[in-house]
Amino acid sequence: MKAAYYHTQGRARDVLTVGEVAEPVPAAGEVRVRIFVSGLNPSDIKARTGFSATMAYPRIIPHQDGAGVIDCVGKGVSAQRIGQRVWVYEAQQGGPNGTAAESVVVPAHKAVELPADAGMAVGACLGIAALTAHRCLLADGSIRGKRVLVHGGAGAVGSAAILLAKWAGAWVATTVSTAQQAAVARAAGADLVIDRHRQRTADVLMAATGAQGVERIVDVDLSANLATNLACSARDAVVSAYALRQATDTVSVPMLEAMKKGIVLRFVYIYSVPQADKLLAIRDITQCLSAGAYAPEIGRIFSLDRIVDAHEAMESSSVIGKILIEVRGEG
Hints:
Layout: E1 2-5, H1 12-15, E2 17-20, E3 30-39, H2 42-49, E4 65-73, E5 85-88, E6 103-107, E7 111-113, H3 120-124, H4 127-138, E8 147-150, H5 156-167, E9 171-176, H6 179-188, E10 192-195, H7 201-208, E11 214-219, H8 222-232, E12 233-241, H9 255-261, E13 264-267, H10 275-290, E14 298-303, H11 307-316, E15 322-326
Parallel strand pairs: 8-9, 8-11, 9-10, 11-12, 12-13, 14-15
Antiparallel strand pairs: 1-2, 3-4, 3-6, 3-15, 4-5, 5-7
Helix pairs in contact: 4-5, 4-10, 7-8
């Protein structure tokens, strides 16, 4: 089969290759998915560049997320799943082979049925982004009727958080840096869009909430936003951080201010979230999809042969919205 892969970590143009590899065969408890669309995430870039770990395998086919059709099942998996349209998450976690290929084998629970009305491109936008956003928003209970701040609402996780928060019944504010990002955030359903370069986020939020503040914060850059978060938080607010710039990043918390408000800091690394919690997230994501409430912004779609360009586009931040790799057309 055709796949993209690398044998050593480094720059995309130096290490990524597209070629022929052996098609995988599912073992017991696994399914094989013919991939139509592969989703690119920042964690895929970090894995390729050695951001936080060296290569655990001599060859890696990258990408955790994707969507396709099950065409083969291993022992113990119902044959009725053959032909099922699915979205895949964490395909390359714990193994060498991800979704940047014509086929991938994953444990059966990592291939989730895709609702009939959802296209393959939407399915490939789920995975890491949707699961991370759900964890940030809902790990601490329902957000119905609550006020949420999403930093970076035009990013993959940020826009997923807006979509899921609105579906879950929350009022949502978000920060952006450009007019184009603002348009993406509004399309996702944000109630309040704040230009973080031209406005003081905490002041705008306190005015908009009648000085009550927000009860959930989804943060892409905690070290930069901590003072703002503390200033606009409601009593017992939960601040969830899911990203960092360097593997050695640290944050210093003004404890007295945080203690007075009873602030909870939650750090989210989706790969270590218990599977039972992921299954709850998948249930909610499926309901959101089925309700037609999950419409992610797709920035660009590249062919598999242009995977280097896709990786470089993500690294340069030149694309707003999800970057996808079309492995095969839907017909």
